[in-house]
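haha ok so turns out i had the wrong file open the whole time. this is the CORRECT one, sorry everyone. sequence first:
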Amino acid sequence: MLAIIIPYYKLSFFAETIQSLASQTDKRFKVYIGDDASAEDCTFLLEQFRGKFDFKYHRFENNLGGISLSKQWDRCIALSAEEEWIMILGDDDVLEDTVVASWYENYVFFNEKSNLIRFATKVINEKSETISKVYNHPLWEKESDFFIRSEKKQSRSSLSEYIFSRKSYIKYGFYDYPLAWGSDCKAWLEFPDAKLIYTINDSIVHFRISNLNISGRKDSQELKDKANIQLFKDILTKKLNLFSHNQRLDLLMMYELAIKENRKLGMQEWSFLIKLYIYNFNFVSFCKCIRRFFVSILALDKNRIKIELIK
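then structure:
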């Protein structure tokens, strides 16, 4: 059985989300809706769908998503029973009518062979207009290959298009990054648990970008950047064994660039990078890193001289 978890907060697009569940051609799922003390009542809407699919609604009295979105995911998942498989669906995202049916049709192919299933996706806007191509994926793919492909903008990824096993969730959980930005990315590296990711390309999950959700908002960029830097550092510190030698070099550069988008690297960060370049040695990459390090140091010295002259 499949549990579909909805951490609810915004009413704006929720009717489309709920309608997409009511329209599923296969009703073998149960929906658990965790209301994060929202100021926008959704119960009147849910009553309109009573009997059209199986759901349970619970309102939490304290808002948790504003403090820790990943912990809000956790307490919403805790509402569910013992379903073996879990999807966390955003309250503004939309499932194509055949998503659940396709999942059951493919079950025989991925059962016991994968802990993480994903669907093809499209990006939609506030008007529910498609603003992207269809993002398809290889039928089977290593978690590390997909992470690199996604970070190189050769693909995309978000929470709603995945179904994961409860046993993987219990084993690893979601890491508590600011705004949960990157929490799903880290999970998708851990949840496969030495198995491949399986893809269902013949049904589509529609992921919404709007100024009402975290992905579309610009006022939280500083927190997103902080989370992104921490994600890369955690991967470099704890998950490097998942990646090939060339991918490790890619990750080192990604980490460096993530920091440089906001500020200059500190000495501890340069030391951390240089040690990893030595450990994952490539002559050209190492020399370029050392050159960037000295250029950075010289730039700092020039700034100090200017400051002293001003004083």
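The radius of gyration is 22 Å.
again sry for the mixup
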